[in-house]
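Journal club side-thread
Mid-discussion, someone asked how the predicted structure for our own chain would compare to the paper's figures. Pasting it here so we can look after the session.
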Amino acid sequence: MPFRSKETLEAWVSDFHDARGAGDRIKVIVQDGSDGGDTGLVIVPLENASVSISMEPVEIGGAPWRVTIEPQPETTILNSYQLHGMAVELAVAAELCAYLEARSVGHDEPDDA
């Protein structure tokens, strides 16, 4: 079943950043699949919280993606400006997830990936 390699996801994240002008802190890391293949994992760090958001396909080769917000070790206290900034970051993450889903529809990874 096809998957998205780290290189493919890095290209997609770069395209998203170029088109949206946001998400410069988003990165892709290697995530080993059950068969040892590189399935890629997209990380969206938040500036105003001690937590990161990760995104990955619901299943290898499928178009739907899921977003995971890891629990944070401490309480986050924000002022209104910081909360607004966090809301913007979450909106960018939501846009990125929708973008990755759209790019995943019908995508076939090259055989040498």
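Post-session note: The two ends are 13 Å apart (CA to CA).
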